[in-house]
From TrEMBL:
One of its GO terms (molecular function) is transferase activity. SMART domains: PKS_AT. Keywords: Transferase. InterPro entries: Ac_transferase_dom_sf, Acyl_transferase_dom, Acyl_Trfase/lysoPLipase, Malonyl_transacylase_ACP-bd, Polyketide_Synthase. Coiled coil: none annotated. Gene3D superfamilies: Malonyl-Coenzyme A Acyl Carrier Protein, domain 2 (3.40.366.10). Pfam families: Acyl_transf_1. This is Malonyl CoA-acyl carrier protein transacylase. It comes from Paenibacillus pini JCM 16418. Residues 16-166 form the Malonyl-CoA:ACP transacylase (MAT) domain.
């Protein structure tokens, strides 16, 4: 997988991309991710370097959100089919659908793993319903960065990261707690 800093339309306009890989995610107006085989991605990286387009090969062991993950389908569905699923009580906004998830089951989770992610659409859908505060609990701050890129003025004061490389997690939690309990 490769993260590319460019407008998502670049994917559709560039045969070197759409002929050799699949669009895996559109995260915001100038960031998307592609998935593909190693050889194809190596050629794409060479092309992106020549064009001086910022990109980063992602340190993942599988090409998620694409047909490249198809070999895992049978094992995944076999594992997931024995689980118990119920209709969500709390609304789930899905980056897979770019909106409200109506049903959550083993197929839903397979689609999350194997189909493109529509993060930007999901945030727009959510923001049309509510004015949200976002808490990134991941180790890298990716969610917070993606949210802030939607609209820095709008989201900059409503997006919080918990984990840091500087052991500030408890301080960050207390800061958030104080913001919401005053």
């Amino acid at each position: 997988m490769i993260a590319i800093l460019n407008r998502p339309d670049f994917y559709y306009e560039t045969p070197q991309l759409y002929e050799n890989c699949e669009l895996a995610s559109i995260n915001y107006s100038s960031h998307f991710v592609i998935s593909g085989g190693d050889e194809q991605l190596d050629r794409i990286i060479h092309f992106l370097k020549e064009k001086q387009i910022l990109h980063q090969r992602l340190a993942v062991s599988y090409a998620f959100h694409s047909s490249q993950i198809e070999a895992a389908k049978e094992d995944f569905l076999s594992f997931a089919q024995d689980k118990s699923y119920r209709k969500p009580v709390i609304p789930i906004i899905s980056s897979l659908q770019g909106g409200l998830a109506q049903e959550v089951n083993d197929r839903f989770f397979w689609e999350v793993v194997s189909r493109p992610i529509r993060f930007q659409e999901a945030i727009r859908y959510l923001e049309n319903l509510y004015e949200c505060n976002y808490i990134d609990v991941g180790p890298s701050g990716t969610l917070a960065n993606f949210i802030k890129q939607q609209d820095k003025e709008k989201f900059g004061q409503r997006c919080f990261s918990i984990c840091t490389p500087f052991n500030q997690e408890l301080k960050n939690l207390h800061t958030i707690q104080n913001l919401f309990h005053t």
